[in-house]
Design brief:
The complex is a heterodimer of chains A (92) and B (265). Chain A has four helices and no strands. Chain A is mainly α. In chain B, the strands form two sheets. In chain B, strands 1-2-6-5-4-3 form a six-stranded antiparallel β-sheet, with helices on one face. In chain B, strands 7-11-10-9-8 form a five-stranded antiparallel β-sheet. The chains are: A mainly alpha (92), B alpha+beta (265).
């Protein structure tokens, strides 16, 4: 039986995967308020890479199109790490 | 920078391609400053010169990441320069960059306003893009025109990227390339879709699946992008549901642009 990772574990996973993707060490610098575009400087193509990396890491297809569509309806098209953690918590 | 008639920071990009008549009403600018110009002190000097106080305050409030702050600044510089080059060619008096302001509308589309006539409609239609080390922008004299431009580094992408970024049909089109050529055309395809989305004024709010590449001509770089229903609605009456986007390679980057002229053009 595979246990569902906790929010803290998911946050640690995101931190590690982002560090690997960008080559920047984020340890301790990221929290759930951190925004992917405004604070981390990611571009839209980076977001696609991250979704693919997360699916590979967790070994399953995740409905990221739902999350992307929700973000696309916002005036400020940005996503906090906490929102991504909540999405992953709901779908893992 | 203090002699706006005589000096430009960027380079003008050629806007030409099959399906487009000779374009005199739009210009694009490539801005790739030395790395030092992207770091504090020089970057901050540029901000002071190129942005008026309200625009600078709005930029600083919207972004905390230093490289992103730099790239957003460069994008604004490029957009203002594209418009100023148009006005310069038309014989208009010189315009200082800080007398212009880039403001996002409710969908995030950038609009260019002249501070000399506050409250008026936009002074030109613009589109802005940036990636690591480069900013590009496009401007059209007609504020009612729709312009879209994008730039992306040509790089290897991880396994699975194609499936996440492109539709099955697009992956078939990309199947004709391999190795470094594939990396280049992945970047061109990405830019084409982003440019098409920007031309609608909505971007790609639902992700890269909001539009689909249906044809590509390798020799000319022209890519036909079919808009999804949400994006096509935004351009109702102004064009068909497909846009012709011109893509090209410049050094280690791909870039793409499109133009939908306004109803009065």
């Amino acid at each position: 039986v595979t246990s569902v990772p906790s929010r803290t574990e998911i946050l640690d996973d995101i931190t590690a995967l982002l560090s690997e993707q960008t080559g920047v060490t984020f340890s301790g610098a990221l929290n759930e308020e951190t925004r992917f575009f405004a604070d981390l400087g990611l571009a839209s193509i980076d977001a696609v890479v991250l979704t693919e990396t997360l699916q590979k890491h967790y070994g399953r297809t995740l409905p990221f199109h739902e999350l992307i569509a929700e973000v696309g309806r916002r005036t400020e098209r940005d996503l906090s790490i906490g929102e991504l953690v909540a999405f992953l918590t709901a779908h893992l | 920078m203090r002699q706006p008639r005589d000096f430009w920071l960027g380079e003008e990009l050629p806007l030409a391609g099959p399906g487009f008549r000779p374009i005199s009403t739009a210009k694009a600018v490539w801005l790739e400053p030395p790395a030092d110009m992207g770091r504090p002190v020089w970057r901050d000097v540029l901000e002071q010169i190129e942005l008026g106080p309200p625009e600078r305050a709005a930029l600083l409030a919207s972004v905390s990441n230093e490289p992103r702050r730099t790239h957003k600044l460069w994008g604004r510089i490029a957009a203002k320069e594209a418009a100023r080059r148009l006005w310069h060619t038309a014989g208009s008096p010189p315009t200082y960059p800080a007398d212009l302001a880039v403001v996002a509308d409710q969908h995030g589309r950038p609009e260019l306003f002249s501070l000399a006539s506050p409250g008026d409609s936009p002074a030109a239609a613009i589109s802005i893009a940036h990636c690591d080390g480069v900013a590009v922008a496009m401007a059209a004299l007609d504020p009612g025109a729709r312009v879209g431009i994008d730039v992306e580094a040509i790089a290897d992408r991880p396994d699975g990227f194609l499936a996440s970024a492109f539709t099955p049909g697009e992956q078939v089109l990309l199947g004709r390339w391999s190795g470094s050529s594939l990396s280049e055309w992945i970047a061109r395809f990405w830019c084409a879709k982003e440019a098409a989305g920007k031309a609608t004024g909505l971007g790609l709010p639902g992700g890269p699946g909001g539009c689909e590449i249906t044809e590509v001509d390798e020799a000319s770089g022209v890519i036909k992008v079919k808009l999804g229903p949400a994006l096509a609605t935004a351009l109702a009456g102004q064009c068909e549901v497909s846009l012709h986007v011109v893509s090209a390679r410049r050094n280690d980057y791909a870039w793409a642009w499109t133009l939908v002229e306004g109803a009065d053009s």
